[in-house]
Amino acid sequence: xxxxxxxxxxxxxxxxxxxxxxxxxxxxxxxxxxxxxxxxxxxxxxxxxxxxxxxxxxxxxxxxxxxxxxxxxxxxxxxxxxxxxxxxxxxxxxxxxxxxxxxxxxxxxxxxxxxxxxxxxxxxxxxxxxxxxxxxxxxxxxxxxxxxxxxxxxxxxxxxxxxxxxxxxxxxxxxxxxxxxxxxxxxxxxxxxxxxxxxxxxxxxxxxxxxxxxxxxxxxxxxxxxxxxxxxxxxxxxxxxxxxxxx
Length: 247
Prior knowledge:
Layout lengths: L1 E5 L3 H12 L6 E5 L2 H10 L4 E4 L2 E2 L2 E2 H8 L7 E6 L5 H6 L4 E4 L4 H25 E6 L2 E10 L2 E6 L3 E7 L2 E6 L2 E5 L3 H5 L7 E5 L2 E4 L3 E6 L5 E5 L4 E4 L1 H10 L3
Keywords: Phosphoprotein
Protein name: Two-component response regulator
GO molecular function: DNA binding; phosphorelay response regulator activity
């Protein structure tokens, strides 16, 4: 796994990085000394897990943890700190573990084993939720979700758009909508990338459902869909949207 260590103390970063590299589960370890450098590294590399100190000069690790939650596929979080009084708060931001300084190899190994267990569980869950059917020589992907204690089967070509708000993922088809607690990243990894396009950090649309791209306000744009809905295109996605629409 690829790991990012975020700590403003060079010696602490080096010590933890060394211990992480001794574990068989570690592929590579990167370092950052602030939230800014951590975000830069996250944009450059696909990080699987991030070890965050709570005290980062004038910043704190919880700020970074909250920013990570905005990502489509956020890395898992382990807090690595000298403060033992923030453990409850750490788990409120879905931290996998809370490792105290001074670091010990056995404790670092234990944290990595927890991370690995979550990855295995996610992989098993993902495999059970995706169903592939074959019609002739053509493969049709189906999305399977749990909604209202029932399993809903949605064909990808019927999906118009999907959006996430307050932790609830909503899938919209013609005349129907379904909600689940899965993430947008979970859905995006299952969709045919030739047919779907992310237009906002919280919105995915079916390209075949787009009828117009029109100017909105303050130099932004919105999409008009075939079902009459209009969705915003954020500035960070407008270039890729125009490229996919061959504009």
